[in-house]
Amino acid sequence: MRVDLFDFDLPPESIALRPARPRDAAQMLVVDGERPFCNRHVRDLPDALRAGDVLVFNDTRVIPAQLEGTRGEARIGATLHKRIDLRRWQAFVRNAKRLRAGDLIAFPADVTAVAEERHDDGSWTLAFQGDEPVEVLLERAGRMPLPPYIAGKRPTDEADATDYQTMFAREKGAVAAPTAALHFTPELMKALGTAGIGSETLTLHVGAGTFLPVKADDTAEHRMHAEWGRIDAATADRLNAVRAGGGRLIAVGTTSLRVLESATGEDGVILPFEGDTSIFITPGYRFKAVDGLMTNFHLPKSTLFMLVSALMGLERMQAVYAHAIENGYRFYSYGDSSLLIP
């Protein structure tokens, strides 16, 4: 499909620079089949779902994966993208033209890394020096990797260390938050449980590739960056039991959805999964695992807007986004939410 079909005009003032407080006070646009749109708030979620439904969350934890350093007199910026092994990460590099294989990059707090190899997509393999775990080094030298559409308008500050982390964050390794789950609070989870709505978790370590624009003119020419995910056998069994009993699986975020769809066979059975996924979902895709999606509002011409258009239909999502803009919904990572039931 032509990528420009997924374009739309978004006023700059629609981009949220801070999250709603409290988190579950964010607006939520409910889109249930062909029914009229319903303007709600995230705290109303128990009333928008039904007993027996299960929300599937991503328990990845964002690491301080953005680094500023030097190679000689040249300033080098690095955003870690994907772990390769215990000491090596693939990273997107700013001012990469000043790097050569074998160069040593000096970051703050005596953290250093060797630029080992440049990849076809322009990213580099960085090998961190020393014996300390890389996560420890990042805590000393790194900062939270806010999306460029926020970082370009204000600096990262102390509030982001908690604002950009979900209440489910346990497994360290993401360089971007699974933002749909930023809206959840312990109080909301208690209300969902009281309403008979369950929850499960899986893991997808979101990479910086989630922020990259689609540069191809046709979706068939776009290559997704791989991200590591996992569903254990016990979780897969429980999710299959929910569907067998007539319950619906509602993915909280496109990251949870992508792992579920990657782990599910053509027969609709969710299998244990551990490894990389580069699944690219566009209109025409047949969903096998999910019955709905809770997600924020995404960038024009992004793979995520293509995904929601695959779930709900392109014309329907164009109408959804026009309604959201007209009614003052806030967009992107710190923005408002939508509940999409095809």
UniProtKB/TrEMBL annotation:
InterPro entries recorded: QueA, QueA_dom1, QueA_dom2, QueA_sf
Enzyme class: transferase
Keyword presence, Magnesium: no
Keywords: Cytoplasm, Queuosine biosynthesis, S-adenosyl-L-methionine, Transferase
GO biological process, one term: tRNA queuosine(34) biosynthetic process
GO function terms (MF aspect): S-adenosylmethionine:tRNA ribosyltransferase-isomerase activity
A cellular component annotation (GO) from this entry: cytoplasm
Pfam families, sorted: Queuosine_synth
Catalytic activity: 7-aminomethyl-7-carbaguanosine(34) in tRNA + S-adenosyl-L-methionine = epoxyqueuosine(34) in tRNA + adenine + L-methionine + 2 H(+)
Pathway given in the UniProt record: tRNA modification; tRNA-queuosine biosynthesis
Location(s) in or outside the cell: Cytoplasm
EC number: 2.4.99.17
Classification via HAMAP family: QueA (MF_00113)
Assembly: Monomer.
Stated family: Belongs to the QueA family.
Name by which UniProt lists this protein: S-adenosylmethionine:tRNA ribosyltransferase-isomerase
